[in-house]
Give the backbone structure.
Amino acid sequence: MYDLVIIGCGPAGLSAAIYAARAGLKFIILEENLAGGQIINTYEIDNYPGIPAISGSELAARMEEHARKLAGDSFIDDTVTSAVLNDSVKKIFTAEHKIYETRSCLIATGATHRKLGVPGEDLFSGIGVSYCATCDGAFFKGKNVAVIGGGNTAAMDALYLSGLCKNVCIIHRRNVLRADKLLQDKLFAADNIKIFWNSGVDEIYGNEQVRGLKIRDIKSDSVSDLSVDGIFVAVGITPASALFSASVNTDKEGYIIADETCMTNIPGVFAAGDVRTKNLRQVVTAVSDGANAVTSVRQYLLG
Ligand code: NAP
């Protein structure tokens, strides 16, 4: 019987592991992919205090190294397939046919990319449509690409791609970007980045691979063709909460409802990082959640 099972090994889960180890809790941390979560695919993180301009994969590696130094034995590579959370002894079931019993559980499963939902997106996924500029950008060296979205991810993707590709077109549905001002300034200063404002994507087309997309000018309702070799979709994230949403309360978008204490509606079940309701989803708020969650777990275990 564990004191705590942490599900997810992104910044929130790794931070929780560090705090749990230091608190002397009997715990495990389960992860199905590489440790680090979404930041593994982030080209550069420049807003984590004390570590300017570090690549996401390097920051993730440092966090993992720190957590493993304190609790290497607690790391388990396995996929959670279901969980029974309502009882005082919670049961976590995994793909390796293990059942982990625990007095408390921390859901730190993060979020995954959202789809655009237009014709051609699924058909050309992996053959011109990508959700990860740092993973796939090199395939489009010297070519023309489009980035869909106006948030921090779209801005960072466009900047990364501008260093590899001939031209980068950002297609954004409004006339202002959601991305941080610093990133916007860099976008506006880049010679090979063009922004299509008030523009939606109607369709992605091609033959064996992507050839272009149909762009709708939202104001005039006119449709035009944009010829590109690659399309990077960066239209936000979806919480990875589906496994737990039958028992844990979520909001209408699927984020697990929890405040800064990370407590959910179920006693002994906590949520931390991008998967929980919050105003700001960044590495710094995720690691803060990990620390707060373990503090709440300790209070819960003391009864
Ligand atoms: P986001 O901030 O939610 O931005 C999504 C963008 O996609 C928005 O510009 C949105 O338009 C647009 N969009 C959404 N649905 C769309 C649709 N169906 N069609 C066309 N456009 C659509 O998502 P994100 O950029 O992936 O960032 C996710 C979180 O991670 C945010 O909290 C972000 O701050 C954080 N993040 C931080 C950093 C960093 O600090 N270095 C880097 C990356 C991400 P509207 O603007 O019109 O809503």
